[in-house]
What does this fold into?
Amino acid sequence: MRNLLNFLIKYNYWFLFLLLEAASFVLLFRYNNYQQSVFFTSANDVAGKVYEISGSVTSYFHLKSVNEDLLDRNLWLEERIASLQKVLKEKGVDSLSLVSLQRVPVTDIRIYKASVIKNSVNLPDNYITLDKGAKDGISSEMGVVDANGVVGIVYKTSPNYSIVLPLLNSKSSISCKIVGSDYFGYLKWENGDSRYAYLKDLPRHAEFNLGDTLVTSGYSTVFPEGIMVGTIDDMSDSHDGLSYLLKIKLATDFGKLSDVRIIARNKQSEQKVLEQSIKE
It folds into this structure.
């Protein structure tokens, strides 16, 4: 206490100076219109800048939830497109009647949210680990996608985690087709660049152009028809010369995977049992 009193006594002139300075500023800005307007204008500019920075920081920390919402919306739109295209094909209706079919229900699939907790892109056989497992309803042979397109297929599960066999794995083989064509082939990755894979076994009489879009064919129990895979970047003949070998630029950037969605087809088990019975 004595030290505090000594400090105040020692620097009392400074405290008096600061007090008088503050009082002079109050009198200056309170009773002079010009100085008052300058003060409030400057204060508003400073406050605005502070609020702007604060808003930017807050927005940054909300990006994850925004990205999740966008991913959900993108997947919902893809479901609607695939469903509408299927109905159009079945009913032989042209695209001008699309508006009247907007209420067609999508009941063929269920979607689960998951996040990537481990990933690799440079190995011959890459794998992805997700933070959702069997207790969340995930099982093997479910499809995995992100906001851009196909990621891979669930390979194994534990109660809390899942291992995904991505497109960037030599064991991966997904049936795909070119948009606007019913010709299909099988997508394979041949090591190297994680941005590209190859579509094999496409018939020689299939018609296509560089830049055409590649989507899932729907000829499997895993992915519904019409999910984005990539675009045709280059073409060549297969080794036997009986089919095309297309270089595909993948839509999914595997180096930036974060949030994904797992697709479960409601009639998957029934289809698998029926197809398996033929092989027995």
Notes: The chain is about 35% helix and 25% strand. The chain has two domains: 2-60, 109-280.
